[in-house]
Amino acid sequence: MTAVDVTREGAVATVTLNRPDKLNALDRSTRWELIGALREVAVDHDVRAVVLTGAGRAFCVGQDLAAVEELEHADETVAGSYNPIAQTIADMPKPVVAAVNGAAVGAGLGLALACDLRLAAESASFSCAFGKVGLVPDTGVSWHLVRELGYARAFAVATLGRTFTADEAKAYGLINRVLPPEQLAASARELAGMLADGPSLAFALTKSQFRAAGELPLEALLALEARHQGEAAAHPDHVEGRTAFAEKRAPRWA
Question: Which residues does UniProt assign to the signal peptide (predicted)?
């Protein structure tokens, strides 16, 4: 049995962490399977949106602490496998939907935050638990929490290590929607399907712009918007969207 499963339904790929007996904890082999799966769907032209979820009762509880040897050179472990996971999701030119089915802890929280849209089951929970084992946030957790919560609240979440509920995560703005557990998987696929049915180039360029928005000065971001708008306007999707609007029908994207 593989530690990461990939299934496809139409233009939607679902990537599932599949170590339910370990609460989908990440050891070296699982991380490399996940990197491979994410890179595979990223370049698959038949895939236009991705769902990331976990098997069993957890989404992902982060680093497998039983793999103590991986923390002897933690800088290499993070740089060599955790960072590529977060970067692959961020750079993927298609939307990624997190379906947080259970606990998202440590790097598992990072995986959820790396996704573009995030759904959570009512039973899901979240914790930035690095400090409980004398470690610091990684997998992009610092980047996302500070930008989405502000410094003071992000620092409290990181250092106090309190577990918070799906409803609290939604109130913080970290989760888009909270659902009954039995509706989560279908709702995530439906949402990903809606994205997959949209104008893929426009969505890819929008994702690129929004990821850059926190880093670029206004002048550079305006230039990026102009460049991307030129690309989008030259694509057949724009002509189709314009025509469909004039004809009062749903567009048929390329």
Answer: none
* Annotation: CATH topology of 4-196: 2-enoyl-CoA Hydratase; Chain A, domain 1 (3.90.226)
Q: What is the tens place of the pLDDT at every residue in 80-104? A: 999 999 999 999 999 999 999 999 9
Domain ranges for the chain, please list them: 4-196, 200-247
Sort 108 into a burial class: Cβ within 10 Å, 0-12 / 13-18 / 19+.
Answer: buried
* pTM for the model: 0.95
Q: How is the chain split among helix, strand and coil, in percent rounded to 5?
A: 55, 15, 30
Kindly give the interhelix angle for 107-114 and 83-91, rounded to the nearest 10 degrees: 10
Topology of domain 200-247 in CATH is Lyase 2-enoyl-coa Hydratase; Chain  A, domain 2 (1.10.12)
- Report the C-alpha gap between 18 and 30 in whole angstroms: 9
